[in-house]
Specification:
Radius of gyration: 18 Å
Low-confidence stretches: 263-273
Largest sheet: 8 strands, mixed
CATH superfamily: NAD(P)-binding Rossmann-like Domain
Strand order of the largest sheet: 3-2-1-4-5-6-7-8
Number of strands: 8
Order of helices and strands: HHHEHEHEHEHEEHHHEE
CATH architecture: 3-Layer(aba) Sandwich
Number of domains: 1
CATH class: Alpha Beta
Helix content: 25-40%
Number of helices: 10
Length: about 280
């Protein structure tokens, strides 16, 4: 691992380097890492900023939207002056302002079955902070097919959820938990039900923490566990997750072999599964 840091980098990352679990070797791992952030909104904003501040060497960001006034209550990477700017450009400017030493790769596009796999394969780890189930399942499927770790967070109203999925190493995939997308209209969006802005900040920061842990190889992974935060009750709880042997994506007789035939049949999740939530 290349430990060649400039004097400015040593000063910038000094509080990391002091940690025995990080040190110079760990900081070099962060510098060499390539992370893809899908969604530059309420979760993607704090996530990107903390990854950039931590010195993650290359950060890709995918989003095809432009900054709107209604975003600014929670999407802290964007500003009033940048209303109308593509979100990937606005987020890249915010991250570069914090740390010009990291490389930001903006992808102003909507992920689909034609481009998701080739894009995800270019990165070591993927973060999902999207606002619709079609994209969530697409990203989850592509990560399993590409053998990439997925750090997934979601929020709605006053609640957040977070987990890590890496069935290529151990544990369940996203479809082991949720199976199929819920029926259209069964789960309200944040634009319909609302969301407390700070909740997205907490969950995006927790998401960034899990990404850094995965890159550094420290601590206990959230793979196989779902973290649920109820902000109103100030309560965290963890639900144990297990692989589904009948999973269409990662089971022994998986039927999802590529993205071209991917179809999400609208079906309610079984009662044993935590409620699904989307980010915004």
């Amino acid at each position: 691992m290349d430990l060649d840091f400039s004097e400015d980098e040593i000063r910038r990352y000094s509080r990391h380097i002091l940690l025995a679990e990080v040190g110079g070797t760990g900081q070099a791992r962060l510098k060499a890492a390539r992370v893809l952030v899908v969604g530059a909104g309420g979760l993607g904003s704090p996530l990107m900023l903390y990854l950039a501040a931590a010195g993650v060497g290359t950060i890709g960001v995918v989003d095809d939207d432009r900054v709107e006034l209604s975003n600014l209550q929670r999407q802290i990477a964007h500003t009033t002056a940048r209303i109308g700017t593509p979100k990937v450009e606005s987020a890249a400017m915010a991250a570069a302002a914090i740390n010009p030493g990291v490389r930001i790769e903006p992808h102003a596009l909507r992920l689909n079955a034609d481009n998701a796999l080739s894009l995800i394969e270019r990165y070591d780890l993927v973060c999902d902070g999207t606002d619709n189930f079609a994209t969530r399942f697409l990203v989850a499927d592509a990560c399993v097919l590409a053998r990439r770790t997925l750090v997934s967070a979601a929020v709605l109203r006053f609640e957040g959820q977070l987990s890590v999925f890496k069935p290529h190493v151990a544990g369940p995939c996203y479809r082991c938990l949720y199976g199929e997308a819920p029926p259209e209209g069964a789960v309200p969006t944040c634009s319909e039900a609302g969301v407390l802005g700070a909740v997205t900040g907490v969950m995006g920061t927790l998401q960034a923490t899990e990404v850094l842990k995965e890159i550094l190889g420290v601590g206990e992974t959230l793979a196989g566990r779902l973290l649920i935060w109820d902000a109103l009750a100030s309560r965290f709880r963890t639900v144990r997750l297990r692989p589904d042997p009948q999973c269409a994506l990662c089971g022994a007789e998986a039927t999802i072999r590529d993205l071209s035939a991917r179809r999400d049949v609208a079906a309610p999740a079984p009662d044993r599964r935590p409620g699904q939530a989307c980010a915004v």
